[in-house]
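We close this part of the discussion by returning to an individual protein. The amino acid sequence and the backbone structure tokens for this protein are reproduced below:
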Amino acid sequence: MMVSLKRRTALLAAIAWSGMLLSLPAHADLDKIRTLGTLSVGVYDDNLPYSKKVAGSKALSGIDVDVAEALGKKMGLKVSFLPFPAGENLGDDLRNMVWKGHYLGYGPADVMLHVPVDPLLMNQNPQVTIFAPYHTDSVRLVRNVASVPQFNGIASMAGKKIGVEKISISAMVLLGEENGRYRDDVRIFPTGVDALEKLKAGELDGVLASRSEIESVLRDDPRFEMREVSFQRLPRKGWTAGLAVKKDNPELASALKDAMDSLFASGEMLRIFAKHGVQIVKP
């Protein structure tokens, strides 16, 4: 079958365009992104209040989704999201979403959000640059004031029903505290948000979860009080989230950092977090 001259010309142009983009040196990735007009952003697909697939839709919602869109706007770019499930460890996530791509054929993205700004993680993953810290989160205990009127440390929760997320730092520290003293009190849920919804419904006495989860779900409900708790194996300073790009994309990292600094300077980051009921803690 003959191909029209018009179609052949368009096909040749597309091939030439693709070849030009592929031939750009690694340090020119930011130029390629600007030429295409779209920033590809990797976010977790189940990480409320930061990012979550909207049920029955391809849309995403959450703090990180809003932050990514704001960064793209500052850079004059559209944003294309690449939601993904958490791997067995952070090294897997960085490999799949930042510097190599998943063996199933998706990724990598141009930038990944919600990456711990941690020296050990950086040393273990030299293929990436982790930078632009934007929020520090921590574990907190929230209790039903009616069922636990007085709180004098975690011992006040003995014999009470305490919800935690499965395979989480909250579950780990609570189950192991004081040689398993609270093990019979723990109730396991798929996510911290699920546990908090059960607390609101009166089915639990307390929940150990991230401060951001607690704030986003309870929204200053006077029936509940959030407190800092001390555990032997819990980092008191919490953990800080930032961005990650491939190591050989310094221009992209610099542009993203400038955009992030601008969001803080303008107060937009504060407004994004407040929209989701979370008080931002700038690192």
